[in-house]
TrEMBL record:
<dbReference type="InterPro" id="IPR036457">
    <property type="entry name" value="PPM-type-like_dom_sf"/>
</dbReference>
<feature type="domain" description="PAC">
    <location>
        <begin position="76"/>
        <end position="126"/>
    </location>
</feature>
<dbReference type="InterPro" id="IPR000700">
    <property type="entry name" value="PAS-assoc_C"/>
</dbReference>
<keyword id="KW-0378">Hydrolase</keyword>
<dbReference type="InterPro" id="IPR001932">
    <property type="entry name" value="PPM-type_phosphatase-like_dom"/>
</dbReference>
<dbReference type="Pfam" id="PF07228">
    <property type="entry name" value="SpoIIE"/>
</dbReference>
<dbReference type="InterPro" id="IPR052016">
    <property type="entry name" value="Bact_Sigma-Reg"/>
</dbReference>
<protein>
    <submittedName>
        <fullName>Serine/threonine-protein phosphatase</fullName>
    </submittedName>
</protein>
<dbReference type="GO" id="GO:0016791">
    <property type="term" value="F:phosphatase activity"/>
</dbReference>
Length: 371
């Protein structure tokens, strides 16, 4: 800033600013404060700025209670600093003032009150930390429910579960039923995060309620009842689910599909078969859906491999998808030389090598081997 004499300067606009403004000359003497500054600190004019801790011990001058941001004679255009005064926080800008000979005259300091902004920011950080802790807890609960998967009589069960976020929208479950039957399903909820994970819990407890409480023992009827229960939530979300029931006495596996496009494969040493079956996802849009039923006769050594599209839709650097063909090729290549657990590990390893960048979707794999 340039000026002939300080007394020629016009402070009318500055006086009406909400920000606190003060001006000190080259000796550090405060020669002007605006109305806002006068309301915050009275009688500052005529005092000297505090530039160091040693200043306040001098008895020949009366010092301001507000520290000065820039030292006397600083030539930078603007110097900034954050200051706390009592319970208030300020963002301070200090600009040098030069006279008409371009010689340092003094400085003008503007104090902007950011107390509320800081409080909001601190509250936001605190809230984010709380949400993060809640999500970690929810994720631990979700994973613990999967880890309780047991090796049912007559079946060997293995799984891999990798979420793209802390909480996943993929889920599977194995439920023991009366009369030597086992219900097994895999589901994929639209989206990720808290809302998707809540739906996975809804699926888990609803299916168990339907098969144990209502004694519904047919895949098609389970999906129809599940669809009706979900429609009561009035959520604009949807999920896909492939659900089957294995009868250990007859060795029959009956299944229905509600929009799950990752078709499970049935394989043994000599064959690979897709358990192809169509159906609409479970959504408030499709409340009266009818589901088809498929049947497969399973034998000792047969394995049914369930998965979600997070695996097959993984993309490489050219945005090409991993795809079902690569998936089936890995299964076919290693199914006779690796255990079920090792095969799932190999699939995850192969898709991880194929992936470029971060994992964009959840991945779930579940194998059910007939012993």
């Amino acid at each position: 800033m340039y000026m002939d004499k300080f007394t020629h300067w016009n402070f009318e606009l500055v006086d009406f600013m909400e920000d606190l403004v003060r001006v000190f000359d080259k000796t550090g003497l405060i020669v002007y404060t605006n109305s806002s500054m006068k309301k915050f600190l009275e009688n500052e004019e005529g005092k000297f700025c505090v530039f160091s801790d040693d200043d306040i011990h001098r008895n020949d001058q009366i010092f301001s209670s507000l520290k000065c941001v820039a030292p006397i004679g600083h030539k930078e255009d603007v110097k900034t600093e954050l200051l706390s005064v009592g319970e208030r926080d300020f963002f301070v800008k200090s600009s040098p003032i030069f006279d008409d000979k371009n010689e340092y005259w003094g400085s003008i300091e503007v104090f902007r009150d950011i107390t509320e902004e800081n409080k909001i920011q601190k509250d936001l950080v605190k809230y984010q930390e709380m949400v993060k802790n809640d999500m970690i807890t929810a994720s631990d609960i979700q994973k613990s429910l999967l880890s309780k998967l047991s090796h049912t009589d007559g079946l060997n069960l293995e799984y891999k579960y990798i979420s793209s976020a802390q909480l996943s929208g993929d889920f599977f479950d194995v439920i023991e039923l009366p009369n030597n039957k086992t219900c097994v399903y895999i589901a994929d909820v639209m989206g990720h995060g808290i809302s998707a994970s809540m739906i996975t819990m809804f699926i888990k407890f609803s299916v168990r309620m339907l098969v144990h409480g209502r004694k519904i023992g047919h895949p098609r009827e389970i999906l129809r009842a599940l669809s009706k229960e979900f429609s009561k939530l009035n959520l604009e979300m949807y999920f896909t689910i492939f659900l089957g029931i294995y009868n250990r006495e007859t060795c029959e596996f009956e299944y229905s599909n509600a929009g799950h496009n990752s078709i499970p494969i049935l394989f043994n040493k000599n064959k690979n078969v897709r358990l192809e079956l169509s159906g609409l996802p479970i959504s408030w849009l499709f409340q009266d859906s009818r589901y088809s039923v498929g049947k497969a006769k399973l034998c000792h050594g047969d394995c049914v491999l369930f998965y979600t599209d997070g695996l097959t839709e993984t993309k490489n650097k050219n945005r090409e998808e991993y795809g079902e063909e690569r998936f089936f090729n890995v299964v076919d290549k290693y199914k006779n030389s690796l255990s079920d657990k090792e095969l799932l590990d190999k699939l995850v390893e192969d898709v991880s090598e194929f992936r470029y960048g971060i994992q964009e979707d959840d991945i779930a794999l579940l194998s059910m081997r007939i012993l």
